Amino acid sequence: MTIQHRYDGIVEGNYGTQVEIYEGSAGNYAMDLYGKFQDRMISFVVHYPKSVAIYVGQCYEVDNEDILKMTWTLHSKVDDIQNDWMSKRFGFNTFKPKQY
Fold it and tell me: Which domains does the chain have, with CATH numbers?
C-alpha cells in the first residue's frame, strides 16, 4: 500500500492484495485508493474488479512511526439478492511504514 496525504486532507495511493474470495476478484495489480485524512482519522475506498472495500481507522504515532489501525468492510458482487448474505466480509489491519 502506498498513501500520499495532500495538503487539503485528501489521501490518494494504491493498494494491492493477493487475498481473494474468487480467483481474479482482487485484480492482478495495485488498485487506486481515495479518501480523507483529518485529525489523525483516516478513511479510504478501494474498487476492485468484482468488489469494493472501505477502510476506516486512526493513525497513531508509536516510537516516531505512524501506525494505521484500520477496520475494513468488503462487499463482493453477487448474482442475486438471495446471495447477498455472502457478499460481505469484515476485518482489521495494522499498517506500518515499509522498512527498506
Answer: 2-95 (2.40.128.30)
CA atoms in the 13 A half-sphere facing the CB of 3 = 23
Length of the chain: 100
Cα separation of 62 and 75, whole Å? 32
pLDDT in tens, 3-43: 888 889 999 998 876 555 556 545 566 788 999 999 999 99
CA distances from 23 to 18, 19, 20, 55, 85 (A): 10, 9, 6, 22, 20
pTM for the full predicted model: 0.81
Those residues with Cβ within 8 angstroms of residue 32's Cβ, 6 or more apart along the chain or in another chain: 12, 13, 14, 46, 47
